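Problem: given the chain below (373 residues), write out its structure.
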Amino acid sequence: MVAELTALRDQIDEVDKALLGLLARRLALVAEVGEVKSRYGLPIYAPDREAAMLRSRREEAEALNVPADLIEDVLRRVMRESYASENEKGFKTLCPQLRPVVIVGGRGQMGRMFEKMLRLSGYEVRLLEKEDWPQAESLLADAGMVIVSVPIHVTEQVIAQLPRLPEDCILVDLASVKNGPLQAMLAAHSGPVVGLHPMFGPDSGSLAKQVVVYCDGRQPEAYQWLLEQIQVWGARLHRISAVEHDQNMMFIQVLRHFATFAYGLHLAEENVQLEQLLALSSPIYRFELVMVGRLFAQDPQLYADIIMSSENNLALIKRYYARFGEAIALLESKDKAAFIASFKKVEHWFGDYAQRFQVESRALLKQANDSRI
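Solution.
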């Protein structure tokens, strides 16, 4: 039995080595594709090409009695690595005449990401930090674009303190709240203004498939090239008004982050043994616990700023708290019929998305289970 298993495992090792060789060849070809895209200013993410390729590979896999989901999982992981490697090839400069870009707060994580992407795209980038403020006027005198990337609680203050910018300079902010900073930029600068919100963390590695929200401010024709440049980096753009943005972020960020904070605080106060939780957890609970832990591995000032940025946020959290109390009242009453009725009400609100999310979550849970040791 041992000899038979050893022989089979040796063959598996040979196949694995062959796979490594094919992966190396694929990555080399991707590098060549990246050079061509860079030369012609093509986005690194081509959704139609990706969808068509995955569809073809799934059909070919089924013909070979290979699970279609397996080849898709493998290819998606390979493509993620490919997008990251394409980053290093650089990007076409869509606005070669642009004067220097100044990033205020460029040593922060998001500022560093934009510095890297702009440099890879051939632009001259300068950084303006707190200690450089005495030289701000000279640093900004010939700026073609100024990007404000500072903590939320000082964003509007920093914008108001900017020295006079050239009339055609594009003023941009990267804050995760938009209406206040956008109004501050419009008041501080008479030239082109746009608000950006990168909907991802600076540890993403690549902008491929990431969402960047933009809120028009003034003279959109002047910064159209910037939006196109962001698309060349692989991101998807979503246009929305600043007011609508902040209303949606109350649910996407504020309520979610606060609920996660409260859950993590409760676990800590209960002094739960994490090792035991993980040992006993199903993939879905482990994944949820990972997302809670992820929050507490990051900058607490950022989350305090997001959650406390508006009185509207507090009002929303209080409504959530009231509904939490109503749910507890259902438990106290032991009214299962009322609980089920409430459950079905939410199910109806989700509509078809409930089933879609169930299917989507299966893939995530499989990945979470694969990572267990």
